[in-house]
Design goal:
Structural class: alpha/beta
Helix content: 25-40%
Number of domains: 1
Distance between the termini: 61 Å
Strand content: 15-25%
CATH topology: TIM Barrel
Order of helices and strands: HEHEEHEHHHEHHEEHHEHEHE
CATH superfamily: Phosphatidylinositol (PI) phosphodiesterase
Number of strands: 10
Number of helices: 12
Amino acid sequence: MTARRALAGTIATGLLAAAAALLPAQPAGASAGAGELPFGSATTVGLHNTYDPAAFGYLAQGLDTGTGMIELDAWTDTVTKEWKVSHSNPLGNANNCVSATTPAQLYTGGANKNLETCLDDVRVWLGAHPGAGPLVVKLELKAGFAGNLGMGPAQLDSLIAGHLGSAVLRPADLLAKPGGGSYANPDEAVRAGNWPTRTSLAGRVLVYVIPGSFEEGNPFDTLPTDVEYGRHLRDLAAAGRIGDAQVFPAVHGAAAGDPRAKYTEAAIRPWFVVFDGDAAAYLGGIDTSWYDSRHYLLTMTDAHNVAPAISGTDPTADQARGRTEQLARAHASIVSSDWRKLPAVQSLALPRG
């Protein structure tokens, strides 16, 4: 009988160990209590060009890393009125988004779909991972808006609302005061500390938009994406319709002082609380504590290029974590990289500063 009991105990122990091995690992990067940090007081890691099939076979696989940010590049196809997702083809899709309506379908079927399908994939994935997030979706409009041809900020708002729905953290949500009433603009809201906690934003998505590389090199584009969406927010607020807006515009490019000073229209400056630029430039003498003390979001891109440079795609886990911790101390909100094979780093959530 004793031998049988010993054998049974050995078998039970083995079964428990096997079952434990099948459970998802606790994200190695998550800091104790990080969920209770306000969204603007944490540092997370993001994935550059997450839509690229060379990065992941399916967009959902990028989300599976636990990343805090994905990036989508979109072009306005004014003939078909579609937002195409690709790096360099303005008339076609080249991406890893599929037409999923269930979690299982996220990892099957044909890819190369439009922006709305990519957002559908995000919505379906979040539905299957209700504790995930908050997730930032960085949207680069490669050639900018085409508002005069029916593809402007209002149309983008409608597309995002139609495919992400109530998951979106809108500018209007940030403006709402906990005790009632509303802040006048996002600058006023975040400087008052109105970012919700990360835990309360589980399952939610913040979308921000930057001008695209093609647009920034186009001498005939006289209305940049950031200015156009900033005006859009200003005008919606004046009309009492700020709830329609789904996107935060970002100031693109690292610069000393208040980078919003480049906008000649002072009235749009308070609508910018997201900043995006090169990590090495920010660490080259810019006072990044300015962003942190005001609770602005600061994405530092090309994190690997900060001296001493490390691999842009395959650093060791210790190198990537060390670089993330370095940029967290330098007040980054999001550390952007191509570190696709390091889920323990992608899932990091650290105190900022």
